[in-house]
Amino acid sequence: MAAIRGIEVVVFDVLGTMVDEPGGLRSAVREATGASGPTAADELVALWRRHCEREQERVRQGRRPYASTEVLDAEAARLVARHAGVTDPGVVARLATAGRRLPPWDDSVAGLERVARRFPVIGLSNAGRTALLHLNAHAGLRWHRALSAEAAAAYKPAPEVYRLALDSAGCAPERVLMVAAHAWDLRGAQAAGMRTAYVHRPAGDPPTGSDEFEGRFDGLGDLVGALTGSQAEAVG
Predict the structure, then answer these.
(1) Residue 191 contacts by C-beta under 8 Å, 6 or more apart in sequence?
(2) Contact at 8 Å (CB) between 128 and 70?
(3) How far apart are the C-alpha atoms of 188 and 194, rounded to whole Å?
């Protein structure tokens, strides 16, 4: 495993990379709708995610004014509730805040802590400000700085979102490492001049053969080893 040298600041994507977004949504949907089988819950989660992805794309294309993930999640919750026949306003309101209660992956908390001992660490997320605040607290993710794309009124991979992290880092882009489980996110970071590392997650967007990242890692333990120049560390 090749070491990653010359890095001053490490930036992590949050949704999907540090927390299990599909798993957290699945739990919230089951709680709200009583969906008993995995297929029923997965269909409702897919409905939720398609809505949010479509609306974020509309924002990126300028076809919709910026709306935070909390607005989009509330829309998705109402859509799921209608589809499942849920009418209780309190249940729908709690479902709308599911994005605040996503669980961390097994290695996220310990891996982040180990990286933070050696580098300033920044969380850079499409999650809205308030959702990100509560999500970080729920998942136990402790950053030196957590940045929401809401500050740029845009969604990754828009370049202005990566600029938020670069402005905070205060160093040359080539000395900033972006870590994500989504190849599309890393391509956006590369376009902004950042260096990149892919970490595999079950629900991520894997690289293609043409992607050239600093490293491709099975988990945060391998990433920690590459950043510190040591053997892969057990985390979690």
Answers:
(1) 157, 159, 162
(2) yes
(3) 9
